[in-house]
Hints:
Helices cover 34% and strands 20% of the residues. It has 607 residues and is an alpha+beta fold.
Amino acid sequence: MFKYPKIFDVLVVGAGHAGCEAAHAAARMGAETLLLTMNLDTIGKMSCNPSVGGTAKGHIVREIDALGGLMGKVADRRSIQFRMLNASKGPAVRSPRSQADKALYALEMKHRLEKTAHLEIKQGTTESLIVEGDKVVGVRTQEGIEYQARTVILSSGTFMRGLLHIGQTQFSGGRGGDKASMGLSPSLEALGFKLGRLKTGTPPRINRRSIDFSKCEEQPGDEGVRFSFDEPEERMEQIPCHITYTTPETHAVIRNNLHRSPMYGTGTIQGIGPRYCPSIEDKVVRFADKDRHQIFLEPEGLTTEEVYVNGISSSLPFDVQLDLIHSCIGLEKAEVMRPAYAIEYDYVKSEQVYPTLETKKIEGLFLSGQINGTTGYEEAAGQGLIAGINAALKCQGKPPFIMKRSDSYIGVMIDDLIRFDLTEPYRMFTSRAEHRLLLRQDNADLRLRPIAYELGVISREQYERARKKQEIITNEVERLGKVFKTIEGRGSSCAQIISRPDWTYALALGQYPDAVNDFGEEINTQIEMELKYSGYIERQKKDVAKLEHLDGIRIPKSFDYHQVVGLRTEAKQKLSRFTPENLGQASRISGLTPADISILLIALEKR
Length: 607
């Protein structure tokens, strides 16, 4: 075994979306970082859908950008369509989404990482961790190389003992065309980690020229949508997507072949799939009353004819998939280029990591992405960013960075992951955030860039831009409350006028150009939100303050819950298992009651 001569501060295993953000964040903070991947040509690869963002996921991408991450900038540069989802709904649920050129997205990500200072990128398959006592000190690879590091971040995606299913055919793989990682799972189990098994899937890809678009609905993009808060990236050519539907014939094909499905008929799939991203088999079984299901036809890029058939992920045999596709509207003569498949993989059960994403068992070992039980590029990237920051902070001897639920969607996600028993892959939704009016996608820079600057992951120029933006908003909100105009026969402040349901900032700007200033759409929107929703925002801020009181009550690591008189047995067991760091985390563990928390608070005060 050859021992590589350099000792790294941070070693990141896996170069998917979590690994890319982890390596970039650590290196940006000055940590000497190694990104170790099985294949240099698949760095940042979009394994499933060719999109970034979406409901709640778009919020995470904007938070990643506010914290100095890459995903938003790469998507802005290499996407072929942008949309604002839920644009007609309230501001808390509006989410940006982009359709990416898959190949160019990955190449752009790889190139940006290659240019990052303090970051080395190497090809190698990690087989095992090197642990001394209870501390990780490096990894060993299949190629016979030992890399030493002060911290290690595992971002292994769906590769750990990955098993692909197409009908009754099974084969090992991390995704279609890539080999699985077979050594990491036994290595983790030997260290005492509890692993589980999850399942996800992907739909077929078809040739664009074989689609009858005259039978489909065109879905154009929206102007002015982007992820990054920095200077706009140069845009690629923008093209439309299309919508089509399954038919009763499609559903008959599926029902007649359920006995050949590895999920329903053969029972060969043991992993739990995502409830909110069901396969077409699940849809037909669970929603038997529906006579059709929507399908999104999403181009995979400008230099390929492949189209991603979003909405019909499947593990049925290939011959059934052909009949299924050909029964859909506009796809009667579609050429299937890649079959759909399901994939099972190992993950580390959730109670084994701290809010920093460092593991409880092994010091210096961090986990990010699907290894923690999540699904989605954005959820993975958000975790990778936090793991990279905390690994760098640990090497620098600085306090850890913990995101709270009131800070960000990333904070909501991590808090959920450390306190939930996952029964399916975790996916972010706006409904998971109790303070979502404070956590809008449009104000992520105002919330997070001051923190990012302190951490050293953004430049002073980026910080100053956010600071000046906040200053303008604060001053203008105050000024508009003091400027009065006559409307409907009586005097009202401009702030009151803009706050009316039937008014907007743009309308007020047109009506009262002498009183209302134009700062551009981005800042104008922020001012309008602050004015229209000031009452709700203040209420949520008060709720946050109450919760932060509980988060401020620390629980010692050595605290023995079994000695707390009056605490229910179930509460003792869950608290001992999840070992919350404070009373706020304890209160959010599933199954604990307000009475349990009151008893625990009294016990902590006595101690």
